[in-house]
Design a protein that fits this description.
Distance between the termini: 59 Å
Largest sheet: 8 strands, parallel
Number of helices: 21
Shape: globular
Number of strands: 23
Strand order of the largest sheet: 20-17-14-13-12-23-22-21
């Protein structure tokens, strides 16, 4: 191993990995150098080029030798485990004092030789031993630990969490729900895009039919003015909501403003986010002014905004709207040195527009209120926590030290994307995140779990290692950045119990071997995508979903059932030149065989659900495939509203930005899909199957 690659490994970078087809793969020296330069400030080393690697290794090894206790320790089920890294022959006394989050003080002491541990040989031949002191407090939470051992002393952050998340596999009844993006739930009352009002209507329909969840895409803040970026997976913040989804009618009524009249729906049109946001802001601005003019309401909003940091976020958005550029192009001091803004007066004194500020603060408060009210019934909101934020996001501006802004998260080449993927999301520095005691990650999780009953962790593999592409390098030339996944799992599990929110890991794609066992150990559901497991020949059945899974026929990133049936995903891959003509022919032949096999299976399926006439073949197959999931072992089954109405076009074609109108399609006839009187035959049969297989308890 060269000194450069040895340094990369010590720094938490995997520059070599196994590709999707089993081949050993190595990133170029240029990519390794670029990521090391980005990490160097967090590592505390001077690093300009490969010639600096030997000295950097020496510095890091010396620091590792001197670090007796890591800055973060964890424990499970009311315990805290403090690992001491000391010379193997060290038999000095140790002391630990734990101050729990609840104020309890617990002390423990002894001699190092009496602790269990294991040896570790450092470069150069020195032998250390990791000796673990376990302190039982009986209390989970975020604790402070003071320690003394091996001639050193210090204070570290401790996380003690339940081993398994709340409501995990094996703990609940067999449930079902529906999936639809909020923006797609348009109505004549809300105009081109859906909002929390139409989402509330969907909740009521699902509850009436006995469902337990409504799943949707991230509803986080986005830039819908300048720059206009509406992908839900490249948000402007993971700490604040997208005010475009506010149900404006009740707000207008509350402050005595005439209810807004939405622009008329145009059949077949896509959602124009810029126009839609402009219209909604035209309505929201005067509502916000009235809300903050009411002394009682203003006091409530002000108290909430101070507690949640919303003034700081609102000032960021206000200055951005004024400048009409991302923060990287703002003049100083707004770009680099603005102190944390805690009050409205602070923001205005620093030059933020008062009216814009008022709108963003009031909108965030109202979104939180409406989302909390939405989850007060029997149906829970199933939300999605995206991998990160875009480069212009609030957090990158405010917490720049936590992000590696010269690097982008992505995915290595796989069968669908041989060129790899660059998502344009600056990854969090695992070193800075840990040094900051995970405050930002904890806030992100809490923000979602306050309103969600189930939280899907997008690309859960990123908690273990995240594929990162340096700026200027192709997506095929990335490295993996390692993260302390047990610490992240501890946070998720702790917050899961505090908020009674179940966890789902999106484990699709290249999955390292340690991921799913860790998910099982900590009570996290996995995903099962039915269309990937359809039979390939007559006489076979679809592969059943694992019991600890959330099962569905598809995801927002795959073809809808009707699109899969007609091969629309193959059309896309051909048009995007991702497959050759020979591969296209092979895939179409295989798809035809799957259609025949699936249709044959559902016609003799023992489900007891009639899936024959008057349904067409595609309708019969969709009903039968969903029924098979419903009667199967998966604890949770989701059905997409798009499948109930046989929508052929997906919401997103991964890897396309300009080539496809992603995230802009409405869900046609969604309001009829769950109504017994108005639903079409395939929708009615599908919901009947779900209700029969998973009755309300």
């Amino acid at each position: 191993m060269t000194a450069l690659r040895e340094l990369a490994h010590i720094a938490g970078i995997d520059a070599e990995y196994t590709s999707w087809d089993g081949r050993p793969t190595a990133a170029s020296e240029d990519s390794v150098l670029a990521v090391l330069r980005s990490l160097a400030p967090d590592l505390g080393v001077q690093f300009a080029g490969s010639e600096d690697a030997p000295h950097a290794i020496e510095v890091l090894e010396r620091e590792r030798w001197n670090e007796i206790v890591a800055p973060v320790v964890i424990g499970w089920d009311g315990a805290v485990v403090v690992p001491f890294a000391v010379p193997a022959d060290d038999d000095l006394p140790w002391e630990v004092e734990v101050t729990t989050e609840g104020g309890q003080l617990v002390r423990a002491h002894g001699r190092l030789f009496d602790l269990p541990g294991d040896s570790h040989t450092w470069p150069g031949g020195a032998v250390h031993c990791i000796r673990r002191a376990t302190v039982f407090t009986g209390e989970t939470g975020y604790h402070s630990v003071r320690w003394r051992a091996g001639g050193g002393q210090g204070e570290v952050f401790a996380i003690s969490a339940p081993t398994r998340a709340w409501g995990g596999p094996g703990e609940g009844a067999r449930r079902w729900g529906v999936f639809a993006p909020v923006y797609g739930l348009a109505s004549h009352e809300t105009g081109q895009a859906g909002d929390l009002g139409t989402l509330r209507r969907l909740f009521a329909e699902v509850e009436r039919r006995g469902g337990r969840y409504v799943a949707t895409l991230p509803i986080l803040a986005q830039f819908l003015d300048e720059p206009c970026m509406f992908s839900p997976y490249s948000p402007a913040s993971r700490l604040y909501w997208n005010e475009m989804f506010l149900d404006l009618g009740p707000l207008a009524q509350r402050v005595g403003i005439e209810a807004p009249t939405a622009p008329p729906l145009v059949a077949g049109s896509r959602i124009d986010y810029r126009t839609q946001y402009h219209w909604r802001r035209h309505v929201l601005d005067p509502i916000a002014q009235r809300m903050l003019a009411d002394p009682t309401l203003s006091h409530e909003i002000d108290r909430w905004a101070h507690a949640t940091g919303a003034y700081d976020y609102a000032a960021f958005r206000a200055i951005g709207e004024h400048r009409r550029t991302g923060w990287g192009q703002w003049p100083s001091p707004w770009r680099d040195s603005v102190p944390l803004i805690e009050t409205r007066a602070d923001a205005i004194s620093l030059g933020a527009d008062g009216a814009r500020l008022a709108t963003h603060v009031a909108a965030q408060w109202a979104m939180q209120q409406q989302l909390e009210a939405l989850g007060a019934g029997k149906v829970g909101l199933y939300l999605d926590l995206p991998v990160g934020v875009n480069c212009d996001a609030y957090e990158v501006w405010r917490h720049r030290n936590l992000f590696l802004i010269d690097v982008a998260a992505g995915a290595p080449p796989d069968p669908l994307f041989l060129g790899g993927q660059n998502w344009g999301l600056p990854p969090l520095s695992p070193i800075a995140l840990r040094r900051d005691r995970y405050r930002y990650f904890i806030r992100c999780v809490q923000h979602h779990m306050k309103v969600a009953s189930m939280l899907r962790i997008d690309h859960v593999m990123g908690m273990f290692r995240l594929y990162c592409v340096p700026q200027g390098r192709p997506a095929t030339d990335g490295v993996y950045l390692r993260y302390p996944y047990e610490e992240l799992f501890a946070i998720l599990s702790l917050e899961s119990h505090r908020n009674q929110c179940a966890l789902v890991g999106e484990d699709l794609g290249t999955v390292p071997p340690q991921v799913r066992p860790a998910m099982d150990r900590h009570g996290m559901f996995r995903l099962h995508v039915g269309q990937w497991f359809f039979p390939s020949s007559v006489g076979k059945r679809p592969e059943p979903a694992p019991p600890p899974s959330v099962a569905s026929l598809n995801t927002h990133d795959t073809a809808t059932f009707a699109g899969w049936w007609r091969g629309a995903d193959i059309d896309d891959r051909r048009d995007l030149e991702l497959i050759t003509s020979e591969q296209e022919a092979t895939e179409r032949s295989e798809r035809a065989a799957q259609r025949t096999a699936l249709l044959a299976y559902v016609q003799v399926s023992p489900s007891g659900i009639a899936v024959g006439d008057p349904l067409t073949d595609v309708e019969r197959a969709m009903v039968g495939a969903t029924t098979d999931l419903a009667v199967g072992p998966a604890e949770v089954v989701l059905v997409a509203l798009d499948d109930l109405v046989l929508e052929p076009f997906p919401h997103n074609v991964p890897g396309t930005v300009e080539q496809r109108p992603n995230w802009q399609r409405r869900v046609d006839r969604w309001a009829d899909a769950l109504d017994e009187g108005r639903a079409g035959p395939p929708a009615a049969a599908t919901i009947t199957a779900l209700v029969a297989a998973r009755p309300t308890r």
